[in-house]
Structure formats: C-alpha cells, structure tokens
Specification:
This protein is α/β, with parallel strands linked by helices. It has a single domain, classed as Ribonuclease Z/Hydroxyacylglutathione hydrolase-like (Metallo-beta-lactamase, Chain A). The protein has nine helices and 14 strands. A hairpin with an 8-residue loop joins strand 9 and strand 10. Helix 7 runs antiparallel to helix 8. It starts with a strand and ends in a 7-residue tail after the last helix.
Length: 275
C-alpha cells in the first residue's frame, strides 16, 4: 500500500526542471536536493542561518554555492543541526565543520556515530520495495568524527540556535534521530522519520513521485520506535513538511496522507522481512 499525494503538472515540471536547485518553501526556509537527499537552510536571506543535515559525500561545493546564493558570500551558518548521522546526511559534515568552525548539534544518542566511536548496524538487504535494499550492504556505515564541534541538544527540546523551533526525538531509523518543529506556523523538518518518496526504488528516487512513506526500510532497525515516531509527528498536524528524501509538501492532501501512514503504519511502512 502506498499513500500518494496529488501534485499538479506545473509543480511536477518545476521540480524536474530545478533538480539540485535551491527551493524556497517559506521566507526563512529553503532546501537543496543533492542527488537523493535534502539539506535544509533555516533563516532569512541576509540574516543568521542554520544548516540542517549535510548531504552526501561530495556535496560540499553544492551546499556552499547554495548558501552563497541565499545568504551572501562568506556568510557561514551559526550552527549545523544533524537529524541523524547516516552517510547520506553527514557526507559534507567534516569538511563544512572544519571550514566554518561552528557547533554541530545532535541528540546524545547519535554521539557515537558523530565522534568516530561506533558504526551503524548492517542494513536489511531483504527489505522490499526496489533495488536499493540490495545495494545497501555496499553503502557506508562508518561514523564521522566531529568531536571538537559537537554539541549535544539540551534535554528540554530547545534548539539553542533556532528560536521558535523545538527538537522532537523521533527514533527508529536511528537511536538519536530528531525532527524539528515550529509551532507558530506548524512547520516540520522531519529528517528520515518520514519521507515523501519511495526511497527503496531507484526509479522513485529519480522521478520523486510524491508519496508518504515511513523511514527508508533498509536502514531502519527499530520498527516499533519508528511507528511511535510517525504517530507523534502526525499528531502535530503540520501544515508544511520537508523531509530528508522527496519533495516538501503542504496542504490537506499531505495531512491526510500522513494520518493514513500513522494509522496504517505496519501495512504501509514495515518491510515484509520484518512482519
């Protein structure tokens, strides 16, 4: 079962035409798709800003170019926030942390994966949905090391560098996965707790059909926690979501798809190998 989200032909054409271009989805929120994963820029152009996640290895120059186009030349962020430490979300982290010399915020349970101490568990190569799970054993699982820049998020949900935002612990995909929530306009940066494309299928990754999915199946070891995380995010009833994979989405169709995912999580999200 797939929860599809209607998308206009104009929006689909715009997405295909602007692949790997910066997309503004709110005055102070934009995201950049780097091959198959999104990085998020939080902050008004010309003002202080924060980078959420750092994409695949080799994304450094694309991220720098997007940052310059939005915030100006040689205007580093005040911090980097990591939703989690999987290879496709930390690919440029070490390079950017060294270049910018800014704090890197993450959940305490992600600390081993961001300080060189621990690798993630092996993927589920038997997960269904496409070719990507079969390729997953060849994907990197080793940790990065940003020890000297790492700052652990405070336990109360505050994000020190993002006034008005709170972090929500959304484990399952990884132990310390977080999402970011702004109550004022009901905006959600979900990381990989939910995604809006079928990340298991190389074709779906390419065409980015708008569909509501749980976290990528091949790299999610704890499905009970993942289900609770999706239900917690659905209970927020967001107006706008940007996820680690797929298009940003808003509106009643998105909300209905998210509620359906939360209500039917086992049927929609969990691979047959784990049922």
């Amino acid at each position: 079962m797939v929860v599809q989200i209607p998308l206009s032909q104009d929006a689909r054409a715009d997405e295909n035409q602007r692949d790997e271009h910066l997309r503004e989805i709110a005055p102070d929120l934009a995201y950049l798709r780097t091959v198959m994963v999104n990085v998020v820029f939080v902050g008004l152009p010309g003002g202080p800003w924060v980078l959420v996640d750092t994409g695949l290895y080799g994304s450094r120059d694309k991220i720098l170019a997007a940052a310059e186009s939005r915030f100006g030349k040689n205007v580093p962020p005040i911090a980097i926030v990591q939703t989690h430490g999987h290879f496709d979300h930390v690919g440029a982290l070490e390079d950017l942390a060294k270049l910018w010399n800014v704090p890197v915020y993450a959940h305490s349970l992600e600390e081993p994966f961001l300080t060189g101490k621990q690798s993630y568990p092996p993927p589920d190569a038997a997960a269904d949905g496409g070719i990507m799970p079969k390729l997953a054993p060849f994907l990197p699982r080793h940790p990065v090391d940003v020890t000297q820049w790492l700052q652990l998020l405070p336990p109360g949900g505050e994000v020190p560098v993002l006034p008005g935002w709170r972090w929500i612990h959304t484990p399952g995909h990884t132990p310390g996965h977080i999402s970011l929530w702004r109550e004022a306009d009901r905006t959600l940066i979900a990381g990989d707790a939910i995604v809006t494309t079928g990340q298991e299928s190389a074709y779906e990754v390419l065409v980015q059909e708008p569909e509501m999915h749980g976290p990528p199946r091949y790299f999610t070891p704890n499905w009970s926690a993942a289900e609770r995380s999706v239900q917690a995010l659905a209970a927020l009833d967001p107006d706008l979501i940007v996820t680690g994979h797929g298009r940003a989405m808003s509106g009643p169709e998105m909300r209905a798809a998210l509620q359906s995912l939360a209500s039917n999580f086992r049927e929609i999200a969990v691979p047959r190998s784990q049922k």
